[in-house]
Amino acid sequence: PEALVTVQDLKVQIGTDDGVVRAVDGVTFDVPRGRTLCLVGESGSGKSITGRALMNLLPPSGRIAGGRITYSGRSGEAIDIGALDPRGKQIRSLRGKEISLISQEPMAALSPVHTIGQQIVPVVRRHLGLSKREAEARAVEMLGRVGIPRPAERLGNYPFEFSGGMRQRVCIALALSCQPRLLIADEPTTALDVTTQANIIDLLQELQREDGLSILFITHDLGVVAEIADDVAVMYLGKIVERGTVDEIFADPRHPYTQALLKSVPRLGAGRNTRLAAIRGMVPSPFDRPTGCDFHPRCDLAIKGLCESEDPGTTMLGPRRDVRCVLQRNGGAGHA
Ligand code: SF4
Ligand code: MG
C-alpha cells in the first residue's frame, strides 16, 4: 500500500526540570492511504508525542531530535514535516486542512466562549476558501454526518450545551470539516460510554470508506484496536517493540510485551472497552531506563546474562512486520 506519511527513526526529546527525556526513541512506521494504524501502549509509552510530532505540534519543551517524517502532499510532493518551522505558514496550512487531530478531551479542543458555528465556519472558510453561507452549509452537513440531530439549529449552541458524546462528535466534525487526508485520533473514545464509543468508531470507519481517509489511532484499548486497526504498532518506553497487520498481531504476537497485553483479551471481537492486562511491575521511569532490553525487568522470558545487557535491536520479519526481541533474531526460530 502507498504511504501517506512515512516515519523513519524518529526521535523526540522533551526537556523537564529533571533533565531531558527521550520520549520517542527511534520509531519507524508508515500510514498507508485509506488505512488505519493503531499505536498501542500504556500511558507514558510515547504514543501521544509520536502523534503530535506528525503535525510538528510538540509541547514547547519538546523537539524532534532525529529521524524523518515524510508526508506525501496532494500533488505527490514529499514534505519533510520535521524540517518545517513549527510556527511557520507551511505547517499551519497543513494542520487542520491536510492533517487533523482529535484528542481525548473534547473540551480542550473547543473554545467555551464561542458557539459551535463560530468555531467551525471560519476554519472551513479559511481552508476551503468558501463564502460564509457555503461554509455554514458545510458545517451543518458535517454536524449532520457525525450524527448530531437538527444540526442547523445547533450551530448557535455553545460546547457546554452538548453532552460529552455529542461534544466529541462536534470535535470530529470540526476535525473533518476541511476534508483532511490524515486524521490523528488520540484516545478519542476513552472518556465516553461504550455505546457512544461504538458509534464513533463506526462513524470513523464510514468516513474512511467514503473519503479514503488515513487514520493514526492512538489507544491503550485492545478491544478498540480489534475493531478499527488495519495495522498495529506496539510502543513501550518510546520504542516500537512490534509492528504488523492487525491479524498478525492478534494471531501471532512475537514480542513478550504484546503477548502479555493480549492475555487480557479473551478472544478477538470479545467486545469494546477491553482494557490492557495488568502486567507485573511498572513502566520504568524514562529517567531510569533499564539497561539492555527496556522490557527485561517485566519480561517472563528474559534470558539471564543477555537481556539485561544487550539491546535486542530490530528484527525484520517482513517488509512491514518487525519486532525487538532477542528471541526473534533468527526470524522467530526461537519462537516464544
Ligand atoms: Fe524479553 Fe529478552 Fe525479548 Fe526483551 S529481549 S522482550 S527481555 S526475551
Ligand atoms: Mg497519551
Could you give the count of β-strands?
12
Percent range of helical residues = 25-40%
CATH superfamily of the domain at 3-86 and 213-328: P-loop containing nucleotide triphosphate hydrolases
**Alpha-beta classification:** alpha/beta
Largest sheet: 8 strands, mixed
Tell me the strand order in the biggest sheet.
6-7-8-3-9-10-12-11
Tertiary shape: globular
Give the C-level CATH assignment of the domain at 3-86 and 213-328.
Answer: Alpha Beta
| Helix-strand pattern | EEEHEEHEHHHHHEHEHEEHHEE
Looking at the structure, the CATH topology of the domain at 3-86 and 213-328 is Rossmann fold
GO molecular function, one term: ATP binding
Subcellular location: Cell inner membrane
Family: Belongs to the ABC transporter superfamily.
Main location: membrane
Could you name the key traits of this structure?
single chain; 336 residues; alpha/beta; Rossmann fold; eight-stranded mixed β-sheet; 11 helices; 24% strand; globular; binds iron/sulfur cluster; binds magnesium ion; membrane; translocase; ATP-binding; ABC_Ni/Peptide_Import
